[in-house]
Amino acid sequence: MRLTVLGSGTSVPHPRRSSSAYWVEAAGGTLLLDCSGPAVHRMAAEGCDWAALDAVWVSHFHLDHVGGLAPFLFGTKYAPQTAGRRKPLFIYGPRGTGGLLRHFDEAYDYGLFEQPFPVEVREVAPRAEFEPLPGLRGATLSTPHTSESLALRVTDRDGTSLVYTSDTGFTEALAGFARAADLFLMECSFFRSKPVELHLELSEAMELARLSGARRVMLSHLYPEWDGVDLAAEAKRLWDGETVEARDGLRLNIGE
Ligand SMILES: [Zn+2]
Ligand SMILES: [Zn+2]
Fold it and tell me: Does this model's pTM top 0.85?
């Protein structure tokens, strides 16, 4: 699997970090992890083949994770690049994903589901297993962030695994869920003294890294408080493994 970071930031406007979105290339196709508002254009900026995108994963309904979904569907409805597309676009997310999209759609006469291709919304329960792409095994875990928020673990045909926490507070359950993952893509909203319980700060993220035995960790969803902090060096003081600081445009081969 190959990962491209589209947005390593949060809802707070930032000159170098746009909000949550990650492009995943697996053996069976492409998967977008969260679709923030900026993600719609970040995909194009990074050369991702957005017109052929196979599936979207929605982790929870905060707008820095789903704000681009309706605009993306508005774009694919009219774009020349998708006029000839016939294969379906799958949208996976927690219970309520379909209702959320319908609310967006009904806010005006958008016709978001009238596309040249089918749009299939599939709601996924916590602790469920599903197949987001052919040959890609997915599993979910409920996280302490919102009532619907889910972490996702995907394992490709060659056995490489990626765990994406999206936004979460601390729970040891995440370490078990990410056991020996090739890449543990964790939120780490704050460096220290986190002002809200339902996000992570560095010491908690490194505790989860240690407990999970993950091969490599990437920290993302970085608030501006991180500006000027050497994330990798601070992480190294707390956990001896490899921690990568997410940056917009960063590309990484998972499992290498
Ligand atoms: Zn967020
Ligand atoms: Zn959130």
Answer: yes
